[in-house]
Amino acid sequence: MSEIPFPDAEAATGVFVEHRELLFGVVYNMLGSVADTEDVLQDTWLSWSRRGPGGVDNPRAYLVRIAVNHALQRRAVVSRRRETYVGSWLPEPLVADEDGADDPALRSESVSLAMLVVLESLSPLERAVFVLHEVFGYAHTEIAEILDRTPAAVRQVAHRARAHVHARRPLYEAHPRVRREATERFVRAAVGGDIAELMEILAPDVTVWTDAGGNRRPSALRPVHGRDKAVRLLTGYARRGAGRGGAGSLELRYRRVNGDDAAVLFQDDAPYAVIVMDLTPEGDRVSNLFVVSNPDKLTHVQKEEA
Questions:
Q1: Upper half-sphere CA count for residue 135 (Cβ side, 13 Å)
Q2: Rounded CA gap, 130 and 286, in Å?
Q3: Fewer CB in a 10 Å sphere around the end CB: N or C, the chain?
Q4: CA–CA separation, 183 vs 1, rounded Å?
Q5: Are 6 and 12 within 8 A, CB to CB?
Q6: Per residue, what are the HEC states of 218-260?
Q7: Within 13 Å and on the Cβ side, how many CA atoms surround 297?
Q8: Global confidence as pTM
Q9: Where are the beta strands (DSSP E) in 116-226?
Q10: What angle do CA 120, 123, 127 make, to 5 degrees?
Q11: 260-267 and 251-257 as β-strands: parallel, antiparallel, unpaired?
């Protein structure tokens, strides 16, 4: 961190560190990118260091306000970058350690990868309001102060965002044990190229999202809709990977990703892909499959000794 231009440097640093997990959670859920979140936190720190804690009655509220507004500014940069992104864009996954010990980013509130995909369809303002209210429990009056808007305007935005999210994302969440069993069953079938098993576990209207960022081959440039197309895609991956020593050389580990059970594939000790499933309300079939294999989004994933 750069030098702080006011006397009480130690106090300012302590206050910022105390709230860093909260700030990370808010900003990450607004942007879906760890790198961009870290940049926003750096900007937040610089703004805070220039202001300092003196005379601030509620440092927590002040820091959240700074971070949210920096995140909204950053969102414009992220959107421009997406315009030239190769293939589907998925959020950067937050992957827990193998022993279940999460880093500070994972201890903060974060929504599932599937929910983050839905949040991408909101406007930046709608997403900020939704994250602050639905994820972190901020009252509309508090959000109004953070965003410099009236409580009535915030309530209207919140209602619109909530209706949009709930229309695309059922409130039901499968039990963790069910998710783990379904994940293991799917991975066995996909890696083994078991067409019959894949047809059984994939929902008829399943969608497969693959994010390689143009850095992996093969990969689908657009989401693949429907069970038949999904099975062809997945079994094709398995055949091509096996033929190159790819799938056979991949090592599988089960980890928690954004709070959900998921699968992580490693090749030569480097992260190769993160696979996250979204289940039907009954919990017995896969409704959405998210595969993140862009190496730039896996830099934080570490393989630990077995």
A1: 24
A2: 26
A3: C
A4: 41
A5: yes
A6: CCCCCCEECHHHHHHHHHHHHHHHHHCCHHHHCEEEEEEECCE
A7: 24
A8: 0.88
A9: 202-211, 224-225
A10: 70
A11: antiparallel
Q: How far apart (Å, rounded) are the C-alpha atoms in residues 201 and 17?
A: 45
How does DSSP classify residue 295? Answer: G
**What is the rounded distance in angstroms from the CA atom of residue 250 to the CA atom of residue 298?**
15
Helix, strand, or coil here: 169?
A: coil
DSSP 291: E
- pLDDT-based confidence at 100, cuts 50/70/90? low
Cβ pair 230, 286 in contact under 8 A = no
> Using alpha carbons only, what angle is made at residue 290 by residues 83 and 196, rounded to the nearest 5 degrees?
135
Model confidence over 67-87: pLDDT tens digits? 999 999 999 999 898 888 888
What pLDDT shows up at residue 177? 83
In terms of Cα–Cα distance, which of 176, 33, 25 is closest to 110?
25
Tell me which DSSP letter residue 297 carries.
G
Would you state the pLDDT for residue 137?
A: 94
Cα–Cα distance for residue pair 112/282, rounded to 1 Å: 18
**Contact in structure between 179 and 255 (CB atoms under 8 Å):** no
Residue type, position 255, single letter? R
Total Cβ atoms within 10 A of residue 71 = 28
Q: How far apart are the first and last CA of the chain?
A: 36
Average the pLDDT over each of 133-137, 198-202, 215-219 and give the range with the smallest value: 215-219
Burial 153-189 (b: 16+ CB within 10 A, else e): ebbebbebbeebbeeebeeebbeeeebbebbebbbeb
The position carrying tokens 């929910």 is: 115
